[in-house]
Structure to design on (830 residues):
């Protein structure tokens, strides 16, 4: 018994965990082992006096009491809590508690295990895991066969593979590595021999994009020192490599630049590329070449960047000095501008030639921008349009102040003008005839072409209009047309006269011929004496008629060719002469011609051809009269017509009269009579023409109103001399 | 004068083509022969000829004109003969005689 108790006591006292027996009613610690008080750093005697709430951190005294009740009820509980040591340290304690019966009373047996250190370790492990997950670099753990064991967030980001896609798979299947600077076998050799390796490699993103990486890999050993796995930490250095490459290129640039590049201080050359070496025959550390020394000095002195040109070995260079103030040197960048200078020179010459052409050309040239504003006009444009250049350039090309006309004199609509059409259609519009009203009232007729203008980028930028002054040409053309019209009229007139003459002459000759034939037939027949007399009268009449015909033709031609002078003529005198002539012309006829006039003197605006007018009217009255006694009354009076004072002559005969349908037609001119002539003769045509030249008029009425066959009344009005 | 001297009776003289047509229409006894001038006022010989022939297609019309350009047309519309002015009395009489015989006479 004693030995058993000693054994159990030893087990109790020397247990690795604290064992405590608690009276749940009083909370007293009835029995406890060494570990219990040692764990909390109390002496036995000190610890004996304590109750759970004295060192329990998490639960309150009431919580403890309730917990005790729970344990008694359930019989068992296990939980984590915290205890405070004597010196105030908080320890993590894992408690196993059981309800036991001892001598009829319930007690709680508790075993306390201090898990503070293992918790710390656990926390540390969790912390490290979090660290690994959130680190910027990819952290990949592998077994010794390169199978992937872990894959952090950064690995997912860098490679595009999710952890669950790759864990368990071989690294070389997912992200095989190329070593740009090392041989693969050397890398592996070093890694396995030394247990670690670091360097650069190239892997691929899941989408195939190459990734430059900086890798540090290490072999993990277990407690026995055996290789248990490996960890590789990879950083994505793709961007850095790009920048390095650019920098490298930039660093190479000056040496590759075909143009001279130098770096100089005030005194010497710090850097010179091969192009500058050849050009200036200089090296680094040499003095500054004399050719640009003054420019360098000037820049340093004035602390300014400069640009200047130098002629070296028959070429022209443009140099820029850029001061790097803080560093105490300046960079010189040169460029060969010889070709540029040559091109500029050619351009200037070309521009000069163009300008000269623009200024001296006979055609008007205007340049119009996209807004329709005239931005340039040449001297020829000024001359043609009658406007100073500054005035032209103030205007829009479709400004209503331009009065633009068609060739017929009507206003030309904007959409028919050359400029607007070219602006709209963006192609050449040629040969548009336009009349432009000048400020002096004259019209310049121009032939216009408008073409689109393109800028350097080949974009439509406006139009250029060119125009030729064809005013004189147009006038000449119009004169030609007038001349042609006059020629045509003259030709038609001549044809008409010829036709009429031929007809009248034929009739005259017919009458003569018939009469002669009869004369021959009756010449030896005394009984036919009266008839013979009649025939000779007929022949005589016809000869007079023929003679009058010739005279009229001649007079008509004269009037057509020459504008005869109008003067003051005393008409009565002329009339009397005409009457005398007519009566002498027809001695065989009984002709009674009387003048009825209150006016003693009639002064009119006329000329000597008035005699032909009166003669023709009288001749007509006799010709178209079948009466034995021919009666003609001439009434003279005055009449105001259209505010003009006229002398009025009325020739009233007892002839065959003029049918109503013929009253106007007998005076009609060539064009109306072109188709048919009606045998009224040239006489009245001559009368009409002559009277027109006097601003006079003629018309015919019936002698007796409504009865044409009883005779005619030819009425003439001629303006009086006021 | 000539026609009467040759024994013909002149039953009418018209001053123009319209008068000729009206006169012809008005005759109850139509003339045997009509001597038609061409260049006349109001209505010319061609038009007058057409109208008279419409009234009486058998009318005998001798067309006399100085204008030879209307000869073919005049013949086409049905004149019995065409004589150019100035013509001799003899030619005129011969054409009248042939017309009365219903035979067209070719003028020289």
């Amino acid at each position: 018994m004693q030995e058993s108790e000693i054994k159990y006591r030893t087990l109790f006292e020397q247990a690795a965990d604290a064992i405590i027996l608690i009276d749940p009613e009083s909370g007293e610690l009835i029995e406890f082992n060494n570990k219990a008080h040692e764990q909390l750093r109390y002496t036995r005697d000190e610890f004996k006096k304590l109750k759970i709430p004295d060192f329990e951190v998490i639960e309150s005294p009431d919580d403890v009491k309730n917990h005790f009740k729970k344990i008694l009820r359930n019989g068992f509980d296990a939980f984590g809590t915290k205890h405070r040591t004597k010196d105030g340290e908080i320890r993590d304690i894992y408690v196993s508690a059981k309800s036991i019966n001892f001598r009829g009373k319930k007690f709680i047996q508790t075993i306390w295990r201090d898990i503070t250190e293992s918790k710390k370790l656990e926390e540390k492990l969790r912390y490290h895991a979090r660290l690994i997950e959130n680190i910027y670099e990819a952290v990949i753990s592998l077994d010794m066969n390169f199978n992937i064991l872990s894959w952090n967030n950064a690995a997912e980001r860098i490679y595009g593979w999710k952890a669950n896609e790759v864990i368990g798979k071989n690294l070389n299947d997912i992200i095989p590595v190329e070593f740009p600077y090392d041989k693969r076998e050397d890398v592996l050799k070093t890694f396995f021999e030394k247990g670690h390796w670091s360097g650069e490699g190239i892997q691929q993103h899941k989408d195939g994009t190459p990734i430059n990486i900086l890798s540090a890999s290490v072999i993990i050993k277990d407690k026995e020192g055996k290789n248990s796995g490996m960890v590789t930490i990879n950083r994505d250095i793709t961007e850095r490599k790009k920048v390095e490459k650019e920098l490298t290129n930039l660093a190479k640039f000056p040496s590759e630049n075909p143009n001279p590049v130098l770096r100089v201080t005030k005194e010497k050359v710090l850097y010179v590329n091969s192009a500058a070496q050849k050009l200036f025959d200089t090296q680094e550390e040499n003095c500054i070449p004399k050719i640009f020394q003054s420019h360098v000095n000037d820049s340093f002195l004035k602390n300014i960047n400069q640009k200047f040109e130098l002629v070296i070995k028959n070429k022209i260079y443009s140099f820029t000095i850029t001061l790097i103030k803080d560093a105490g040197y300046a960079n010189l960048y040169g460029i060969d501008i010889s070709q540029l200078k040559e091109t500029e020179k050619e351009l200037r010459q070309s521009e000069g030639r163009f300008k000269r052409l623009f200024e001296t050309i006979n055609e008007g040239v205007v340049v119009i921008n996209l807004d329709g504003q005239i931005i340039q006009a040449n001297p020829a444009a000024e001359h043609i349009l009658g406007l100073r250049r500054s005035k032209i350039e103030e205007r829009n090309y479709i400004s209503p102040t331009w009065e633009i006309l068609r060739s017929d004199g009507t206003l030309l609509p904007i959409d028919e003008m050359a400029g607007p059409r070219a602006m709209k259609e963006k192609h050449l519009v040629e040969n548009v005839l336009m009349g432009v009203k000048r400020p002096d009232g004259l019209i310049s007729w121009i032939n216009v072409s408008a073409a689109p203008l393109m800028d350097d980028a080949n974009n439509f930028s406006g139009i250029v209009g060119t125009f030729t002054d064809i005013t004189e040409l147009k006038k000449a053309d119009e004169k030609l047309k007038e001349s042609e019209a006059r020629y045509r009229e003259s030709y038609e007139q001549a044809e008409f006269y010829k036709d009429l003459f031929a007809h009248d002459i034929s009739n005259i000759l017919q009458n003569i011929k018939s009469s002669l034939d009869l004369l021959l037939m009756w010449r030896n027949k005394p009984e036919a004496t009266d008839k013979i007399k009649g025939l000779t009268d007929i022949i005589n009449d016809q000869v007079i008629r023929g003679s009058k015909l010739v005279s009229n033709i001649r007079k008509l031609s004269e009037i057509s060719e020459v504008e005869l002078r109008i003067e003051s003529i005393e008409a009565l005198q002329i009339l009397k002469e005409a009457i005398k002539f007519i009566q002498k012309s027809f001695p065989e006829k009984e002709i009674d011609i009387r003048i009825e006039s209150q006016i003693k003197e009639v002064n009119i605006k006329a000329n000597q051809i008035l005699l032909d007018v009166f003669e023709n009217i009288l001749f007509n009255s006799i010709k178209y009269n079948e009466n034995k006694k021919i009666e003609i009354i001439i009434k003279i009076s005055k009449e105001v017509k259209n505010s003009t004072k006229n002398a009025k002559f009325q020739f009233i005969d007892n002839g065959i009269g003029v049918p109503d349908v013929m009253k106007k037609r007998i005076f009609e001119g060539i064009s109306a009579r072109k188709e048919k002539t009606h045998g009224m003769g040239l006489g009245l045509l001559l009368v009409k023409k002559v009277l027109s030249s006097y601003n006079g008029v003629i018309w015919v009425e019936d002698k007796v109103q409504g009865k044409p066959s009883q005779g005619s009344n030819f009425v003439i009005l001629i303006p009086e001399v006021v | 004068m000539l026609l009467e001297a040759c024994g013909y009776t002149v039953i009418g003289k018209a001053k123009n083509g319209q008068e000729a047509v009206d006169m012809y229409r008005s005759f109850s006894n139509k003339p045997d022969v009509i001597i038609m001038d061409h260049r006349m006022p109001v209505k010319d010989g061609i038009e007058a000829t057409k109208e008279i022939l419409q009234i009486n297609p058998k009318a005998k019309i001798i067309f006399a004109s100085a204008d030879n350009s209307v000869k073919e047309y005049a013949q086409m519309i049905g004149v019995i003969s065409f004589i150019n002015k100035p013509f001799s009395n003899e030619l005129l009489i011969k054409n009248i005689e042939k017309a009365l015989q219903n035979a067209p006479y070719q003028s020289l």
Q: What stands out?
A: The first strand of chain A starts at residue 18 and ends at 22. Chain A touches chain B through 27 residues (CB under 8 Å). DSSP finds 23 helices and 28 strands in chain A.
